Amino acid sequence: MPAYDPNNIFARILRGEIPCKKVHESAHSLAFHDINPLAPIHVLVIPKGPYVDFDDFSAKASAEEQADYLKAIGDTARVVGADAGGYRLLSNCGVNANQEVPHLHMHIFGGRMLGRMLKREGE
C-alpha cells in the first residue's frame, strides 16, 4: 500500500485550499459533487481522516469513523435524490482498480441507467 500523500487533492479540499460544491458533511466525512461527472448524479464521499483506500480505512479507522462514513454515504445518496431510481457505489482500491487519488473516496452514480458493472473480458 502506498503511503498517504497529505497533498492529494482531497486532503487539500478538506483543508479548504481547493473549493468544492459540498453536498453533505458529518463529523468524520465530507461529500461533494465530482468536477467531471460521469452521470447526472456523481458525488464523492470521503472520510476526513488520512486513509489511502478502503483497505487502509477498514484496518485503521475507528469504529466511530467507519459508522459515520457508511451513514454519510447513505445520507448523501438521499440528499442528491439518487435513492429514487437507484444508484451505484464505486470505490477503487489500489493499482489494479485504477485508483487515481490516494485518499479513500466513494463515488455515488445515479440519475440514469448505468449499464453493467464491468465488461466481460474480450468485450
Read across the widest sheet, the strand sequence of neighbours is 1-2-3-5-4
Tally of helical segments = 3
Q: What overall form do the CA principal axes indicate?
A: globular
Residue windows where pLDDT falls under 50 for at least 5 positions: none
Helical content (DSSP H or I, runs of 4+):
10-25%
Number of strands: 5
Q: Rounded to an integer, what's the Rg over CA atoms? A: 14 Å
Structural class: alpha+beta
Distance between the termini: 30 Å
What does the average pLDDT come to?
95
% residues in beta strands: 15-25%
Q: How can the largest sheet be summarized?
A: 5 strands, antiparallel
Order of helices and strands: HEEEHHEE
List keywords for this structure.
123 residues, alpha+beta, 5-stranded antiparallel β-sheet, 3 helices
